[in-house]
Structure formats: structure tokens, C-alpha cells
Design goal:
Layout: E1 2-6, H1 32-46, E2 52-56, E3 63-65, H2 72-81, H3 90-97, E4 104-108, E5 127-131, E6 145-149, H4 154-163, H5 177-184
Parallel strand pairs: 1-2, 1-4, 4-5, 5-6
Antiparallel strand pairs: 2-3
């Protein structure tokens, strides 16, 4: 499994639309980058030894991050501490790292400045994008690629369901938490 964490500047926006309204139960000051780093650490710690977590904004400043030797919280802190910001070249990064993986998880806000090159192996690799900010980027229109717009713990179920082959390529893209729940609920990460 390849897990990409978008470390661009736009990922420092707050994950909650109500982040500035402390009167609501939905108050959160967590950034998209912090939540994406936590999700990457949690998923990466449960995946096979050959899985990779890659922090990126552009290809030249992408870096593999180890999440297996420390706790999920320590790995989260390590990823957040290494975020460089900048623009986002998701297509180039995917094209560079995907070759050794049979499944990809992209944790992003889907703001990016490039596209997938035609003929890239990414087009033939199952991929789940978790879009934390709800921008309508659409990294790829491949039927093997699914998108969750917004964030909930159901992303963990969707990752496991895709890895287990439950979310089939012929299904329409997963675009909301409710669709993810109906397809993937009941499956635990690492099961």
C-alpha cells in the first residue's frame, strides 16, 4: 500500500467548517494536514511491511516517512513536523511512487497543479482519495479510483474495504460518508 500525505500549504486550513465557532459541538482547530498525518500513521502502522507513507507537495521535496517504529501519535507529530508547504504536484508524485504498489491511498484537499500523465501505471492501480477540504479536484477519472469528500472515521472502513476488494471498480465513485458507510461498514482496519 502506498499512502500519500499532501503536505502543501493549503492543507493547513482547518478541517472543520465551524472551526471558528467555539459555541458549537463541531468546534475543531485541527488542520487538514494534522488529520491526514494521523490517518496516514494509523493506516501505515497496520499495513504490510512493504507499505510506504510519503509526505509530499512537489516531487523534489517528497519524502518517505517511517510509521512502523513508533506510536501513531509520535508518527503523526513526525509527519506534521516535516511538512514543507508549497504547491502540489500529486500527478508527478503518484507517477514516481506507485510502481511498486498495488493499492494507493491519497490524503489531500485535492488542490493540485498537475495531472496524471497518460499511460501512467496509476490509471491501472486501485486508489482511494480522502478529500479533507471538499475541493473538487478529481485527481483521476479512472473507474479504479474512489473519492471520499469530507472526513469521518468511515475512511478507515473504506480503505480496508477497497484493499479487500469489496468496493469494486465497476461501482460509481464513493463521494459521501453515507455511501461509504453503506458499502464498507463493519470492516475493521487490518482485518
Amino acid at each position: 500500500v502506498l499512502i500519500l500525505v499532501d503536505g502543501s500549504g493549503s492543507m493547513f486550513s482547518e478541517v472543520s467548517m465551524r472551526a471558528n465557532d467555539k459555541r458549537t459541538a463541531n468546534y475543531s482547530s485541527l488542520s487538514c494536514a494534522e488529520v491526514a498525518s494521523f490517518v496516514a500513521s494509523a493506516i501505515g502502522s497496520k499495513c504490510s511491511p512493504d507499505s510506504e507513507v510519503v509526505l509530499y507537495s512537489a516531487l523534489e521535496n517528497s519524502q518517505k516517512v517511517s510509521v512502523k517504529e513508533s506510536s501513531v501519535l509520535e508518527s503523526t507529530r513526525n509527519i506534521v513536523a516535516n511538512i514543507l508547504g508549497g504547491g502540489t504536484e500529486t500527478g508527478k508524485v503518484l507517477g514516481h511512487y506507485v510502481k511498486d504498489h498495488d493499492f494507493v491511498v491519497v490524503l489531500t484537499d485535492e488542490q493540485f497543479s498537475d495531472s496524471l500523465p497518460s499511460g501512467s501505471p496509476v490509471h491501472h492501480t486501485p486508489m482511494l482519495t480522502v478529500n479533507f477540504a471538499g475541493h473538487s479536484g478529481a485527481i483521476s477519472d479512472s473507474p479504479l479510483h474512489k473519492v471520499i469528500s469530507g472526513w469521518s472515521e468511515e475512511a478507515f472502513f473504506a480503505v480496508n474495504a477497497m484493499a479487500a476488494g469489496i468496493l469494486k471498480a465497476e461501482k460509481s465513485a464513493v463521494t459521501s460518508e453515507s455511501k461509504t458507510t453503506s458499502v464498507a461498514n463493519g470492516y475493521e482496519l487490518g482485518a
